[in-house]
Write a sequence for this structure.
């Protein structure tokens, strides 16, 4: 009986994976990441680093995410430890809650929640990622501070004080800590509230004031990525953490953000995109699931306004999303999908790894090159690339963390 059930499950899984592969997508030809705009071929890593990568970064900045300000755009940034305790999760970890203020008067700030394993010999590697609903929503830990009412009032509608642990399943803190990693998170709304108010709130206001915006002005994803980098600035000051071994991670819109953070800030040692979909890891030219047109009309504030012009004409984009992955090279990159998440186009997410492999090769590292999309829950790690399709919905689950830890152990331990 057990065997029969196993067989049925296996057949159902392979059917799902086959139907994922057979889904009709727009026929397309990807731009070659190793071909310069002037037609020359990139032949070595020096040429990639000095010429092609900057050319691509310029495209992504001017046409998609907008131009982020530099790392010193908030010169009055300072850090205040709000709370610290050595007995989080029954003594498993040290918890620190730190206010990262971007201006002298502390009108603009985020609160970073951090857990560091107590069982450690020397500085530990860490995962850093933004969260959706507030730090208190990532855990049952009652000591995690609630957002202040003033802060909550600036968040996108729908955030509640009672949301404690609402997204706890996405943050497997105890599992992560037991595997020897620290973990740090902040609510993305702290940096830029996730609704379109013409950039009058959040970090854009502090840094740009009333400066007129243009087609290349930075959007919210760029702001969230900038916030991740400022958290890394802080982690560099924490002696218990090895800031050279920080993996940046994000889910969905925050997966798009972790990819862009990995591209813009090469201090991130490893990059993880969980279900990042359209404008993240998914190939835009496939036009499968969410499209450029759709995302720009639903979430115009995420991007620079130039991006809108590619809606419905993805084949005219001088880049595609595999080149976002390529800009992470030669650092390890992991792209994960979920079997029921067709809106994010799991197949297109996989193909962006395949499309970036030639750039990893330039650095002497293998990557994923098999055009056959792996089956559900058959993780693949080749060289410095990792991938899996979890069975189930658009989300982050323990299964995802298990793969991320196994992959990170190869590079960060
Ligand atoms: C959806 C959006 C996706 C994805 C997701 C999320 O509504 O269409 O691009 O980012 O939100 O962030 O949960």
């Amino acid at each position: 009986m057990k065997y029969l059930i196993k067989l049925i499950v296996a057949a159902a899984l392979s059917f799902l994976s086959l139907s994922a592969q057979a889904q009709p997508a727009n026929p397309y030809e990807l731009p070659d990441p190793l071909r310069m705009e002037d037609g020359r071929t990139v032949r070595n890593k020096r040429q990639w680093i000095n010429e092609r990568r900057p050319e691509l970064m310029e495209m992504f900045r001017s046409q998609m995410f907008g131009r982020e300000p530099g790392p010193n755009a908030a010169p009055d940034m300072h850090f205040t430890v709000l709370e610290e305790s050595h007995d989080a999760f029954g003594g498993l970890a040290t918890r620190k809650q730190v206010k990262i203020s971007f201006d002298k008067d502390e009108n603009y700030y985020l609160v970073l929640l951090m857990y560091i394993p107590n069982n450690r010999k020397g500085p530990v590697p860490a995962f850093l990622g933004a969260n959706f609903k507030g730090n208190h929503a990532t855990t049952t830990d009652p000591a995690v501070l609630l957002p202040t009412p003033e802060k909550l009032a600036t968040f996108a509608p729908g955030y509640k004080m009672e949301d404690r642990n609402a997204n706890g399943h996405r943050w497997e803190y105890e599992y992560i800590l037991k595997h020897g990693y620290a973990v740090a998170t902040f609510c993305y709304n702290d940096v830029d509230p996730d609704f379109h108010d013409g950039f009058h709130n959040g970090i854009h206001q502090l840094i740009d004031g009333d400066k007129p915006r243009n087609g290349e002005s930075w959007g919210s994803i760029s702001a969230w990525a900038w916030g991740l980098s400022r958290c890394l600035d802080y982690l560099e000051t924490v002696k218990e953490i090895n800031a050279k071994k920080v993996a940046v991670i994000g889910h969905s819109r925050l997966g798009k953000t972790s990819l862009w953070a990995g591209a813009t800030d090469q201090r991130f040692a490893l990059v993880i995109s969980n279900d990042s979909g359209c404008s993240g890891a998914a190939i835009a030219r496939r036009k499968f699931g969410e499209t450029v047109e759709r995302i720009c009309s639903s979430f115009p504030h995420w991007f620079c306004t130039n991006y809108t012009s590619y809606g419905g004409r993805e084949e005219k984009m001088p880049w595609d999303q595999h080149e976002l992955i390529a800009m992470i090279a030669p650092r390890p990159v992991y792209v994960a999908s979920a079997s029921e998440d067709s809106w994010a186009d799991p197949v297109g997410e996989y193909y962006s790894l395949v499309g970036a492999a030639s750039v990893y090769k330039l650095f002497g590292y293998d990557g994923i090159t098999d055009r056959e999309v792996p089956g559900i829950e058959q993780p693949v790690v080749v060289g410095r690339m990792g991938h899996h399709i979890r069975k189930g919905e658009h989300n982050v689950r323990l299964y995802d963390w298990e793969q991320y830890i196994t992959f990170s152990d190869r590079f960060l331990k």
Notes: The radius of gyration is 21 Å. Confidence is low (pLDDT under 50) at residues 1-22. The chain has one domain: 9-412. The chain is about 35% helix and 20% strand.
